[in-house]
Amino acid sequence: MALLDKVPGELKLYIGGIFTLRRRDALREANITHVLSVLRMPLDDDLFSPYNHHVVQVDDVDDENLLEHFPATNRFIQDGLDGGGGVLVHCAMGKSRSATCVIAYLMQKHHISVSEALSQVQQARPIVEPNEGFMKQLELYGQMQTPESVEDTPAYQRWVYQREIELSRAVGQAPEAEKIRFEDEHVTDQAASFELRCRKCRRPLATSQYLIAHDSSKSTNDQGPISSIAETARDCAHYFLDPLSWMRPELEQGKLDGRLECPKCHANVGKYAWQGMQCSCNEWIVPGISLSKSRIDQVKKAAVSEIRRPPGPAVSSPVNPRQNL
């Protein structure tokens, strides 16, 4: 009799496809008590009647949000193992969706990387290959340090915001006002290295932790690849940045693009385009929210007695994982 595909180690954790549920003798021999189904399709209740059963209804597509389910699937797997029985995680083919959930569990359980967890699962089932979108979600989950609640994590909130921007971009519309994430209302603990001020009235508009670094593989200078916010800002005509609360009156109007004015002197200091904007260095930034270098002064932190941020409630949160200041 063929055995089930068991993840290496002492855990009674198994992975398979939908047809694995037909192998009753093998399931009984493995003492399977919990079954996690990760798929969206009609399921025969008779297949699950002997087991504790949990379903996550997702499709095997890159833009499906499986990340939000990791805490619940991890708890279900752990509950099954703690009860002394075996746990089977399955999808349609036992290749992508089920593997993603097993990898997420192993990352949290053993504090290991995505690649290490993937290698373990592939030892059990060589065909395992999560789709590209799920792999990115696993990488983000690792960067978030596999929290018990992902929805309260700023990195997850930013990721959801970026998904909303992409969706709005796909349909040619500006994002809904309530879905715009004003980053200074989620202040990081990361120290600012410099401040950007309106050249006309000297009003502080942003600090360096809100700037978006360009892709170093696409943007270069005379010395080689650009690898920092400071170098990007120095070599390009614009500072690209996250939405900040002083931009709220303009960004919440529902326009696809427009101008940004200094909230104090109303000088034109930049522009925005939700569909994206090309920098002078040819890098394409989505969304494109920029301050013009010719209208802004950059002031080093050492010259600033107190870093002043645009108005907005100060809420402590972890460092933004996609920035490297």
UniProtKB/TrEMBL annotation:
It comes from the Eukaryota. Its EC number is 3.1.3.48. Residues 305-325 are annotated as: Disordered. Residues 68-126 form the Tyrosine specific protein phosphatases domain. The keyword Transferase does not apply. The keyword Hydrolase applies. One of its GO terms (cellular component) is nucleus. The active site is at 91 (phosphocysteine intermediate). Pfam families: DSPc (PF00782). Keywords: Hydrolase, Protein phosphatase. Residues 5-147 form the Tyrosine-protein phosphatase domain. PANTHER family: DUAL SPECIFICITY PROTEIN PHOSPHATASE 12 (PTHR45848:SF4), DUAL SPECIFICITY PROTEIN PHOSPHATASE 12 FAMILY MEMBER (PTHR45848). Belongs to the protein-tyrosine phosphatase family. Non-receptor class dual specificity subfamily. This is protein-tyrosine-phosphatase. It comes from Karstenula rhodostoma CBS 690.94.
